[in-house]
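Deviation from plan, reported transparently: tryptophanyl-5'AMP complex.
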Amino acid sequence: MTRTRIFSGVKPTGHLTLGNYLGALRGWADEDQHRADALFCVVDLHALTVEHDPARVRRLSRQAATLLLAVGLDPRLCTVFVQSHVDEHTRLAYLMECTASDGEMRRMIQYKEKTERERARGGSVRLSLLTYPALMAADILAYGTGEVPVGEDQAQHVELTRDLAVRFNQRYGQTFVVPKATVPKVAARVMDLQEPTSKMGKSHARTSGIVYLLDEPEVVRKKVMRAVTDAGSDVVYDRAERPGVANLLDILAACGAGDPTELADEYDSYGALKKDTAEAVVELLRPVRERHAELVKDPEYVDSVLRDGAERARAIARPRVDAAYRAVGLMPAV
Ligand code: TYM
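Because the crystal trials were delayed, the predicted structure below was used instead.
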């Protein structure tokens, strides 16, 4: 029997956050790489869909790759690489644009939210922000991926990927595996500590509600202790009515201390909950920061991992993308 193929990625638009870690990276390292044939990618092309500073994207891409190794991805078990190093992603993205309709792209929540925000400021959005899910579908489908471990916010994009795979296969013959998203049981959507009705997002302007993986322990403590909590003072787990407290309970539960509803019973003040959550997060991130500090001293090692990773990724993606090119009627080069 062939092993399940897993693919997932992270976009270098900002420093990686606790949301990225709990929603995705931790599961990749602790479970996915051990149970499947897994590829994990710094999806740098996706970072160009919004205004960007070239030097910053380059820096953040390296940092994200280093962090993937720091959280425990082991290149002997899985493939770690950078998207732009493997041409198959953009080759296939075009075929995905030819498979999708503009209406289904416009329905994507992230596109709608980002365009509304941008237009309110009088700005415009890049065309690539609209076509982004076609590139994301290509990322996934090029590898014959069965499972895509992501946080809740990416589930809609994976659903669209499924639709595109099914449609392509129906039109042109069986070419792609139809993938499914897997999301973690707890902390699939970590919320901003200052604005607990919005997702903790790495590219938000206000950083006081965002815990970054490389924040110093003192900074983590400060951010968690200053988290916005809700009116009332008793600790209950209610995501709709008490989003601030529920977020802290989710984070604490995800740090390893159990179930958020049961945890709520153990606390009778917000202060105690915050203190324990802060310490749990500091301890959770400590080994990641330490390993990152070591890896930063050895950039050649990180480069060699990415070089080997891209080579492996190319070898897997190439035949399937070639097959897709033939299936749609493009004439093979002779
Ligand atoms: P990105 O870079 O925004 O996030 C990377 C991963 O982290 C998860 N995540 C969260 N999980 C829980 N709570 C949060 N606050 C939180 N914020 C982020 C995301 O769900 C994601 O799993 N479009 C993707 C990148 C991508 C991709 C792919 C993913 C491009 N191609 C192919 C999977 C497969 C993105 O922007 O993720």
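Residues 96 and 134 are 5 Å apart (CA to CA). We consider this an acceptable substitute for the interim report.
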